[in-house]
Amino acid sequence: MICEEMDVMDYCSDRNYGCRIKEFSFRGLKMLELENEVLKVSIILDKGADIYEITYKKLDLDFLWKKPNGIRETKNHILSNPATLGNFEDYYAGGWQDVFAGGGPTNYKGADLGLHGESALIPWQYKVLVDKEEEVSIELTCSLNRIPLSSTKTITLKSNNSSIFFNEIMKNECSEDIEFIWGQHPVYSDLFVNDDCYVETNAKNVIASGAGTYPNSDYKEDEKSSWPNMETKDGENTNLSKMSAGKSGSAELFFLGGFEEEEAWYALRNPRKNLSIGMVFDSKVYKHLWMWRVFNGSPGYPLYGRSYHLALEPFSSYPNNLDEAIKNKTALSIKGNSLIETNYTFVVFEGSDKVKRIDKTGNILAK
User: Fold this and answer.
1) 337 Cα distance to chain centroid
2) Beta 183-189 vs 251-257: how paired, if at all?
């Protein structure tokens, strides 16, 4: 129910079993928690609707990485001077961001765009669509300031189900065609990621961002190969699907692609924990999968070598530069007053067997 006697319209469902919803405040920011018997999902409504927590209750394990500084209260956070890349890194707390219109810093149609665009920095509004013991579903909405795009995103949990279901509609609010980069930015922490982990996907090829992005990368800039194999700068053949292939002190970014099926997917398997996670997403919208792995590398701002994490991020385009994405024809284009609709699913599953396929309902087909 809605507590109308409060000055702020807080959602006050009293149910503490099955599926449930709770709104609360943390460090001055409005948060929303979705929960069922298996998962707990926390969302920062006041900053990008970031998914800050996905906890698997059985193991009390939160899969999402947290930046060392954690969540920052944004209203009274005064920056010393404007950052060249924009404000994303200053307010980035880790977790999972929905990022658009990305590809900055750049100027597009007269609008100055920062790293990953505006969506992860502004408040999102929400309303409850379903609040039942068997299912909870919310609708999140935002409208950008500098680019006339808006998003309506639905997130659903079902009872005793270890999947999170997403539907998202991007709308062009003007009559002009708009080119942009759109991505999902989940980053997984060393609470789950270790040297025993494997990445499986139906991607067919891979491109290394290389030393041009991270000077301590072992790979050449724009090196292309068939997934999961790639040769290092020293001529060593490596298997990128194995986390053990990454060297301590390194940081690297790869762009996977070549999805032949409409349902693109990946699985991150952890044999040590006998547990796996995965995503399935629409390859017509998210044609690429970015793999950002940092093994206590990335010296200096913003990480200062303090992070061990792996990000597997469905993205429309590559690289993270709108001008280049337009040139290589991977940027998304949405016609004036039109919509793009897409679905994606995150799933947790026990076991670490090799995966042949994940479907949009969260079902796993083992090899």
Assistant:
1) 26
2) unpaired
- Are 167 and 341 in contact, with CB atoms under 8 Å apart? yes
Tokens of 189: 């922490």
Q: Which two tokens stand for residue 261?
A: 């099926």
Asked if residue 225 belongs to a domain, the reply is yes
CA triple 188-190-191, angle to 5 deg: 95
In angstroms, the CA 68 to CA 213 distance is 22
pLDDT at 245: 65
CA-wise closest residue to 264 among 202, 315, 187: 202
Listed as ranges, residues in the chain with pLDDT below 70 are: 1-10, 12, 210-212, 245-247
Strands 163-172 and 339-350: antiparallel
Quote the CA–CA distance of 317 and 285 in Å, as a whole number. Answer: 9
In a domain, 13, yes or no: no
Please check whether residue 9 lies inside any domain of the structure.
Answer: no
Count how many domains the chain has: 1
Q: What distance in Å separates the CA atoms of residue 349 and residue 359, rounded to the nearest whole number?
A: 13
Instruction: Show the CA angle centred on residue 42, arms to residues 150 and 294, nearest 5°.
Output: 85
CA 73 to chain centre: 21
Residue with tokens 């001077």: 81
Domain that holds residue 56: 20-366
The answer to whether residue 1 sits within a structural domain is: no
Verdict on whether the full-model pTM lies above 0.85: yes
Helix ranges (DSSP H) in the chain = 88-91, 322-327
pLDDT tens digits, 101-146: 988 899 999 999 999 999 999 999 999 999 999 999 999 999 999 9
Output Rg (C-alpha) for the chain, integer angstroms: 20
CATH of the domain at 67: 2.70.98.10
